[in-house]
Amino acid sequence: MSRNFFRFTFRQMAMQKGFTFINILGLTVGLTSCVLIGLFITNEFCYDRFHANGDRIVRVTTEFGRGGTSNPIATTGTKAGPQLKRTFPVIEDYVRTYLSPTIVTRGDEHFKEKGFLYADPSFFSIFSFPVLKGDPNSLRQRENIALSVSAAEKYFGTTDIIGKTITINDSKQYTISAIVQDPPSNSQLKFDFVVSFYNLDASKNEIWYTANYITYLLLRKGAGVVQLQSQIDAYMESPQVRKDAGLEKGDYIKMNLQLLKRVHLYSPLAGFEPNGNITYVYVLMVIAALILIIACFNYTNLAIALASARTGEIGIRKVLGARPKQLFGRFTGEAMLMTGIAVVLSVVIAIGLLPLFNGMTGKQLVAANILQFRPLMAILIAGLVIGFLAGAYPALVLTNTRLITILRSGFRVAGGQGGVRRTLIVLQFVISLFLIVTTVVAIQQMSYIRNKDIGMDRDHVLVLPIDYDMLSRYEPLKTAVAGMPGILSVSGTTDLPVFVRWGDFLTSYTAQGRVSFNINTIPVDLNYLTTMKMQLVAGSDFTAADFMANSWARDSAKPGRYILNETAVRKLGWTPQEAIGKTVDRQIPGIVKGVVKDFNFRSMHEPIGPLMLWADTSFIRAMLVRVSGQQLSSTIHQIGAAWKTFVPGREFSYHFMDEDFDHLYVSEQRTASLFTTFASLAIFLACLGLFGLAAITTVQRTKEIGIRRVLGADVLQICLLIGNSFLRLVVIAILIAAPMAWLAAGKWLETFAYRISIQFWIFLAAGAGVALLAFGVVTYHALRAASINPAKSLKTE
Question: What's the rounded Cα separation, in Å, for the pair 536 and 486?
């Protein structure tokens, strides 16, 4: 392009500052949205794709079936990996993994590290986590440990530490044998320490049950996952496996395979972290495309609106012999130049918004994710294509207008083309209304989840993690905390009541015969029901007499004491009152002492299942402290002081239980936040598009408005005259968007077992809000046109 082109274009942009600002703003908002959404989508699709063996790695999940119930989980027992490898030659290797919070010592300081991973020696040969220093096969020795770069620098200040030792859980010393590159953010497996799986006591026995471990298989090249799955299904039904697993008639256990690359987006079973959702990714892709389309529509409409001001220029250029191709090139060039400015601004703004965007999405995106060759080239090419497409239509309209028409009456868009643009405006508002309704429904559902009576009170409950080595100090610490002012109740549990993982089989003999099914169980301490404010509907709570040091050592002649929830009692065919005193068996027989009202112990995507509470403090992994909420900081400070007294050298850490509850819906909350943000941007862009179409209309009807003013029409009548046509477009958009949003929101709500009903007022409020917004934009233009002196607008007639 010549220097003259740039000089003339920038001069033209300066003459139309307002429209230029709106054009660049619209394109910048659209492109910035696409850059951010593109980063998010790329990160989601790239999950676990950096492994060299990624196409051959599968995750093994377990599905237990008993009594007509099914319980799929992401974990397996210790036997799945080694036994499947021994049985099927197509399996090259396996690795079992277990992530456990662990205390790491540095001098006199103790830190609780969440990224402490136990893994089989094959870990670094199956996965592509680069070993920067040391021996990648070092996990073959139990006393060795591998550290991430971050962990090495945290504890030693350098990575030159091969051969040094580090203390774990105040007693066990490991020799540092390898330094590993930090796992990338788009990896399911995130760790800072890796030790041999054989350090776990559970590794001594291979069993199908006690499914606490995530197992991966490495298949040989050319192996078919579908074929292997069918072979495994047949094997798991073989008499030998059924006998080994202790299965009875009608019971089953399945080992299901999932390709590693598909786990994050396609699996409903979360592993080390919450999974994504491919549906949400596709929805965001559509939103990004729609926002960009709206931005292009806006530029097109505003370019046409500006054309009437360039009548003289177009006519003179045609008189001087400018060919249509030259005019087309000039106008598309202007669009591409303006888009280029928007591209630069969008990259700068996107980088500046990354911290805020990371907070919304939970990602760890950095400027380097944008400022690389491939992303920058993709953004640049997209900008050029968008600029060409956005400028092509107005360029064709302007260059194909006959010279005699321009010289006689100036530029005027034909009605058919106006119909096309009105259609585009309708589509813009359809998109906006659809996003508004679905976003409001998502927000309402999240509010419903947070405020629903789930059968317990999770507010004002502090969770203090307890590990195995601390159990001897658990009772004195609990006693000290319970006597503090501001403490209402103290108890303990293995799994938090908002997400129970422990599963067992429950069996009982009823009037209908033998009944057996899967059941979730929680070992709990005294005052558990009181601390969680759960309601007994029959029977009584646990007493000190119900507790023994170890539930597995109970004498069969002295059955345990169990509390069941209402769902479990119903599955046994009893009423709550009938259940009291009955005998049930979860490998250890026990008597039903009480029945607790149903409470949601998992995500509300799932209905409440059968649950059992049993009295045992040997499995306690969390202390639950209900506080009054008054002088909270002082109360926490006192608990911290007691912690240092009874658990010296251990870092005092705590969190509130409602944080764990929110963690169950992190994907939905992030999606609702993204929808809210980008729905607002879509509305904003749609209003810019309406601004453009209103500008066209008022420019073309200036003389008509002047005549009506001469004949006595007032400003209000002029506003209604112009506004009515646009309100009709909004009404059409509402009629189209309402059923689409109803179906989409209803389909999403079906994924929840407990959900709201879609309320009709949402559609009325969204439609009325958009209509008022549209009318306000149109009224602005109408007032400007009506305020023009009629003599001035009619002097050229």
Answer: 25
